[in-house]
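Quick one from the shared queue. A colleague (R.T.) flagged HTH tetR-type domain-containing protein as missing a structural entry in our internal table.

Convert sequence to structure tokens.
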Amino acid sequence: MVTAADPGETRTSVWLSPGHGAPARRRSEVPSGLDRDRITGATVRLLDAEGLARFSMRRLAAGLGVTAMSLYWYVDTKHDLLELALDRALGELPLPRTASAASATPAVPADRPVRARASAPADPAAEGWPGRLRSLACGYRRLLAEHPWVAALTAAYPNIGPHARAFDSALQRLLDATGLAGACRTGAHLAVSQFLHGCGGAARRAPDGDFALALDVLIAGIEAKAAARTGT
């Protein structure tokens, strides 16, 4: 899988690199005092503080007190690092789980989130899928408000890191709970995905009430389709 991160540039996702580790040609020679986890956390903090447009490897290195070339012992390109930062930020999103999924504890990726992911409700099944979908959407909106650069990177890079896959799995479980199938299920997935990603441009501007109303309309539409399918 490739993505055009810059005009005229085609690259392979960092998540498709074997082991997602430091570049193999340098792995045995990496300098002490740094690691990929620390660099990724610093990248998230710099992006939060200065924004995507001002991000550079030189600024990042200065904040870590190292040379810019030192960072390339751990990543091949700036784009690899931005992909890692994107998935790190997505790891902060609380993911609602179904009752069956709540009993299974997912493996914690080596690339830990900057802040611990909030725990799921004690009885997630009691909310029903509308409540869990509302919780997921509101959490994603907060994430985009806290990290405005996430929306741009989500559009620029393939979302195939461990936290992105966990997010998609949670959404798929929610859609399973609606009872929709076939074209209706596909349409519901597209509508929810577009709604969530569309929050990126308005996360800091749209009033909470407007967002909540739009989310209610979306959920009501899915409920209506589900009710029509079951004849209730």
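The radius of gyration is 19 Å.
Residues 192 and 218 are 8 Å apart (CA to CA).
Added to the table.
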